[in-house]
Amino acid sequence: MGRSRETHVGNNARVKSRGLRQMNVRRIKTDEGPRLRAIRLNALADAPSAFGSSLEEEQALPSEHWTRYAQEAATSETMAIFVAEEDEHWFGLVRGFVHKDYSEIVRLVSLWVDPSRWRLGVGAMLVETVIDWARGRGAKCVQLWVTETNQAARSLYTRKRFMDTAHTKLLPSNPSLREVLMVLELI
């Protein structure tokens, strides 16, 4: 079966793909702290070497943390979390935030797609949504750190025109792994 794709610029994107009803990418809402916690813990359990924090660290965070985090991510001018949703079930997330020292740089972090939705364009939609959000803010570039050994993610970012840099660092949650900085120039 072929894939049909429908994408909208802005904070919402939609895709119809391989028998899926419809995947929608949207910014989280202020009251979605418990759902945010659940998908974040799923991501950390599924791909522990892809993130800077650990499952144990984030499981220990109180529910008030997730409530505040969702409220901020839904309303902040400098940070946003987007989710990929189908039939009200979340299958992916990504966060974008303005670099604390350089307002023209947006960082893309915490990208995760449920393995049941791999190779359906969900990751690409999430990345595109952060890029659109960055452009809407007038950012000059989007940066991200990715583990050198995560070839699937690196391939996605390369398809989206991110370029490797010479900057590397150890992954905080697993110092045996190294991350590389990738950059997408928007101007």
Structural class: alpha+beta
Oligomer: single chain
Helical stretch count? 5
Major sheet: 9 strands, mixed
Mean pLDDT metric? 89
Q: What is the topology, as strand order, of the major beta sheet?
A: 1-2-3-4-5-6-7-9-8
Amount of helix: 25-40%
Distance between the termini: 37 Å
| Spans where pLDDT lies below 50 across 5 or more residues | 1-11, 15-20
Radius of gyration: 16 Å
Portion in beta strands: 35-45%
Q: How would you spell out the order of helices and strands?
A: EEEHHHEEEHEHEE
Strands, count: 9
Please state the overall shape, judged from the principal axes of the Cα atoms.
globular
Q: Overview of this structure, please?
A:
With 187 residues, the chain is an alpha+beta fold. The chain is built from five helices and nine strands; from the N terminus they run βββαααβββαβαββ. It has helices at 33-46, 55-59, 63-75, 122-136, 151-159; strands spanning 4-6, 13-16, 23-27, 79-86, 89-98, 105-113, 141-147, 163-171, 174-185. Strands 1-2-3-4-5-6-7-9-8 form a nine-stranded mixed β-sheet, with helices on both faces. α1 packs across α3 (63-75). The protein starts with a strand and ends with a strand.
